[in-house]
Specification:
This protein is of the alpha/beta class and 377 residues long. The protein is built from 15 helices and 13 strands. The strands form 2 sheets. Strands 3-2-1-4-5-6-7 form a 7-stranded parallel sheet, sandwiched between helices. A 6-stranded parallel sheet has the order 10-9-8-11-12-13, sandwiched between helices.
Length: 377
């Protein structure tokens, strides 16, 4: 099959899911054409079945806001025609679904009926999408998509609550590549990070407000009073400078390391004992799943799709947003004995395995085939 994938190129979860899915289809013998404004972060190698089409927007003094959606629609039209795509899969509704629907109409006039599948990732519905500015266009683009998927049941429910969608929404969860995200023996590395056998606690995110990075520090501070530990803060974003400065001011630099963006996150997860995700909202929590695949139990909030990923009392614990005391209490419970920790690690791994890309990837292919059939019926 020839598949077009429209996505954000950055480190954000939706771009990662889109790129990994495309790469998976490449391994299955399909041809994949990525359309984005920059080379997707995880597409940094050559493969004869994977193509990248860059959307560039020409500058003009009149444009206060460069017309990206028009450039994107034009690029979609061009790619569908010249590459002979069978299906177009857009990740993140804004503005990708709208641009795809516009392209669909242009192509229809030229006698080409291209099925559009939109995958909702989270903030496109729960934060940005909730903004009334975008409401009518999101609703229209979702209703004009030939298929819609959501990465969790919770996101499906939110979408149906916030928008008058008359299309069916299929839940296909996010996935993890278990060959990459697996616990690697890195004892020397662990000794360098925690020389006295301290527990290693980790957080990875894009340091936006929604991630509640301050809560990570507070939870760590409480755990650290009872359990000798180190905190690794991985990633970068708007909140990092402030939070890092605050840690410096209260003299916590010895125990907390801000590592910035890391490509080989799995190496750091391999030496970690606990992952903290105190997000305000999270449609799925891909970073938590990647941690679990590396045998790291998770303390997270119980919002959005997180309880579908992190099973309370089994793979870790879930708490109300902002309930730092409970998060710390549960963290201590997991970390205080090796026996307890190992049980949680094993359960985290077992649950993560149910999200293996080899299981979830084919669900998308089956869905494409089903949509293609209904469009051509
Ligand atoms: O919010 C982010 O961290 C980025 C965003 C994205 O679309 O790039 O992430 C959302 O999609 C991810 C992949 O499906 C999910 O794992 C994240 O939970 C979701 N983020 C939120 O809902 C806040």
């Amino acid at each position: 099959m020839k598949i077009g994938i429209v996505c954000y190129p950055t480190y954000g979860g939706s771009g990662v899911v889109a790129t990994e899915l495309g790469k998976f289809f490449g391994t299955q013998g399909h041809e994949v054409h990525f359309i984005s404004y920059d080379q997707p972060a995880r597409l940094d190698f050559f493969n004869e079945r994977l193509y990248y089409h860059e959307v560039s927007v020409s500058d003009y003094p009149l444009f206060r806001y460069p017309p990206y959606e028009i450039a994107l629609s034009s690029k979609i039209v061009d790619t569908v025609i010249n590459a002979g795509l069978d299906v177009l899969h857009v990740h993140y509704a804004i503005p990708h679904a709208a641009a795809a629907v516009m392209a669909k109409y242009i192509l229809k006039e030229r006698g080409i009926n291209i099925p559009i599948i939109t995958t909702l990732h989270g903030t496109d519905i729960t934060l940005v999408g909730r903004d009334a500015t975008y409401g009518p266009v999101i609703t229209y683009s979702l209703n004009q998509s030939d298929g819609i998927t959501a990465v969790s049941q919770s996101l499906k429910n939110d979408t149906l609550e916030l928008f008058p969608i008359h299309n069916e929404i299929e839940v296909i969860p996010n996935f993890v590549d278990m060959t990459r995200f697996s616990k690697k023996p890195r004892e020397h590395f662990k000794r360098a990070i925690a020389p006295n056998g301290e527990r290693v606690i980790v957080h990875t995110s894009n340091f936006r407000k929604v991630k509640r990075v301050d809560d990570v520090i507070e939870v760590f501070r409480l755990i650290n009073k009872q359990i000798p530990s180190r905190l690794l803060m991985i990633g970068d974003g708007p909140e990092r400078i402030r939070v890092e400065r605050e840690c410096r001011e209260c003299d916590m630099c010895d125990q907390i390391s801000f590592l910035g963006k890391q490509d080989a996150v799995e190496e750091l997860l391999s030496v970690s004992d606990l992952f903290i995700m105190p997000s305000e909202t999270e449609s799925f929590g891909l970073a938590a799943l990647e941690a679990m695949a590396c045998q790291v139990p998770v303390i997270s909030t119980n919002t959005g799709g997180l309880p579908e990923v992190n099973i309370h009392g089994k793979t870790g614990f879930t708490c109300a947003v902002g309930d730092i005391q409970s998060m710390a209490k549960y963290g201590i419970e997991i970390l205080e004995s090796d026996e307890q920790l190992n049980q949680f690690k094993q359960a985290a791994l077992e649950h993560a395995m149910t999200f293996d890309i080899n299981t979830v990837g084919p669900l998308y292919m089956t869905y494409y085939e089903q949509i293609l059939q209904s469009v051509n019926a």
